Q: What sequence folds into this?
């Protein structure tokens, strides 16, 4: 019997959805799902097998089977594409209407339009985000906010280039079912953008550009490359038009940077150092391995600690060896209305971007329009009139596996203050996420899915490794965490009842015996 071939939308009707959920978009989603869906699931299972090997005493290293790719000096990635040659400052943020206009107008060279860390994959946000991108590219996004403020795109040619970050391979999109199966959120975000706004970008002489998150191996990059090949061929778009920058933000991927560039070489737009998910991945991957992999309080881990230096230096070296952009990461400090806090935030971002520019990065990320000018100034002081410094080879850098895994020498303590902060931030973030906001300011810092993952994973790791807090001398136990959860929730604005669902989700991902791979998975289950 021939299996039934169906494409079904189960999400609530969203105004104007037919403009982005077109027959062509849905057909491409279905084709990608049918041809690549099984491989995606196999690769997700391979992640689990690797963690099990590490739990049993294994480790990570550069792969022997791909040594020839690393040793072959002859290959390079494709030359930089129009609109993403000069990337000295990139702003990131969700794709709601206001943020779309503000980001495009911000003066940044690139806008990372986020369906991932800064986004809640509510069905309405998934669809409206795509509509906002389409309206932005058609320059029809003008609107007036409820407070009367009018938003319109700047009239000059200085709009940021749009680079879309689809969801990671792990997240399903439960509102679209192909042949009765839930599809990948990554493939939905990719296919809908490509067939609608992305195709308009091609007509305008730019391209459909992507940032690819949370990958753990070059085989996952190969899967993306195969999705690009299939989609370009299906839509009659010339091969190599799509470009993608890969976030190196997992510890296994840090050992496969060259292989990832190689897999995507005709579509590659370089690599980015996604520091927050990188830290999350270290905790997650080595969570059962005791003191050798125990990071101190989240806010004390800086980019100058040895393992972070090893990772960022290797990233610049790898990119420039292959003719690719190396893009820096996110300093989470955002402008504040309090003058002292504001001055401190700007000083921290200045130091961060200065180090990146001097290390050879070609540009970096900011979370807020107020930081665009500062980042531009710092990179311009190093780049001058050059659009990037890809030709600055870092052959002086030699990074070993031991250096990438040197977590133990990170200075700092695990304290009750750190535990309380993780609980407080984790619950506040989850409350925002469940309410539809994927990025929020908490205690003067930008918080998103990646930083919240660190918070809850540290609690899990400290609890399951019997850590004793340096300041109070108490051991981290389930009872202690539950007591601090009650105390911290009592300090939050509103009533404790407002946090009931966030609190329950937090406890599920922070103290349960079984470790949940991503907090967004159970949180997504709680969403209609
Ligand atoms: C680990 C990672 O992946 S990092 C990348 C993912 N994370 C992100 O992208 C976070 C992006 N940043 C943000 O979402 C926001 O800056 C927040 C939530 C942290 C703070 O936002 P707010 O509380 O609105 O800040 P604030 O009130 O200072 O904003 C001032 C103005 O700037 C706008 N703005 C702030 N950040 C952004 C942004 N990233 N993009 C576009 N506009 C922005 C606001 O919309 C607001 O506009 P308005 O004056 O027209 O109302
Ligand atoms: O996506 C970026 C990160 O730091 O995580
Ligand atoms: Mg990330």
A:
């Amino acid at each position: 019997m021939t299996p039934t071939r169906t494409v079904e939308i189960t999400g609530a009707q969203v105004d104007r959805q037919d403009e982005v959920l077109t027959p062509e978009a849905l057909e491409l989603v279905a084709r990608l799902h049918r041809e690549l869906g099984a491989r995606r699931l196999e690769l997700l299972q391979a992640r689990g097998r690797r963690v099990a090997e590490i739990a049993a005493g294994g480790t990570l290293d550069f792969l022997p089977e791909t040594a020839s790719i690393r040793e072959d000096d002859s290959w390079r990635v494709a030359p930089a594409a129009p609109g993403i040659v000069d990337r000295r400052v990139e702003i990131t943020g969700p794709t709601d209407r206001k943020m779309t206009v503000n980001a495009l107008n911000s003066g940044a060279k690139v806008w990372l339009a986020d369906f991932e860390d800064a986004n809640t994959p509510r069905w309405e946000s998934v669809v409206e985000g795509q509509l906002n991108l389409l309206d932005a590219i058609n320059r029809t996004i003008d609107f007036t906010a409820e407070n009367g403020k009018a938003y319109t795109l700047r009239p000059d040619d200085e709009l940021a280039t749009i680079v879309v970050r689809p969801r990671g391979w792990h997240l399903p999109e439960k509102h679209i079912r192909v042949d009765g199966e839930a599809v990948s959120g990554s493939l939905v975000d990719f296919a809908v953008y490509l067939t609608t706004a992305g195709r308009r970008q091609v007509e305008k002489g730019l391209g459909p550009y992507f940032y690819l998150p949370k990958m753990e191996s070059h085989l996952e990059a190969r899967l993306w490359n195969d999705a690009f090949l299939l989609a370009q061929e299906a839509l009659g778009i010339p091969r190599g038009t799509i470009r993608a920058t890969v976030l190196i933000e997992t510890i296994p991927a840090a050992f496969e940077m060259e292989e990832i560039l190689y897999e995507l070489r005709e579509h590659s737009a370089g690599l980015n150092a996604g520091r927050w998910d990188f830290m999350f991945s270290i905790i997650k991957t080595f969570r059962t391995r005791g003191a050798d992999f125990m990071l101190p309080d989240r806010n004390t881990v800086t980019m100058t600690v040895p393992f972070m230096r090893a990772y960022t230096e290797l990233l610049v070296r790898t990119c420039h060896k292959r003719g690719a952009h190396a893009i820096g990461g996110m300093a989470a400090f955002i402008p504040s209305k309090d003058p002292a806090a504001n001055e401190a935030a700007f000083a921290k971002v200045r130091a961060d971007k200065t180090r990146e520019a001097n290390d050879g990065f070609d540009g970096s990320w900011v979370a807020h329009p107020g930081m665009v000018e500062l980042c531009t100034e710092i990179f311009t002081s190093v780049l001058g009139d050059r659009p990037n410094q890809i030709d600055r080879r870092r052959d002086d850098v030699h990074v070993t596996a031991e250096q990438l895994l040197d977590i133990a020498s990170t200075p700092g303590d695990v304290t009750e203050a750190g535990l309380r902060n993780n609980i407080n931030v984790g619950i506040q973030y989850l409350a925002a996420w469940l309410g539809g906001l994927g990025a929020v300011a908490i205690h003067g810092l930008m918080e998103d899915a990646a930083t919240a993952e660190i918070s809850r994973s540290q609690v899990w790791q400290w609890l399951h490794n019997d850590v004793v807090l340096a300041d109070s001398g108490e051991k981290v136990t389930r009872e202690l965490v539950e007591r601090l959860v009650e105390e911290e929730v009592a300090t939050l604005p509103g009533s404790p009842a407002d946090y009931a669902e966030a609190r329950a989700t937090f406890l599920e991902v922070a103290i349960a015996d079984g470790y949940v791979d991503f907090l967004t998975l159970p949180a997504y289950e709680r969403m209609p």
In short: The chain has 18 helices and 15 strands. The radius of gyration is 22 Å. Residues 416-525 form a domain with the Malate Synthase G; Chain: A; Domain 4 fold (CATH 1.20.1220.12).
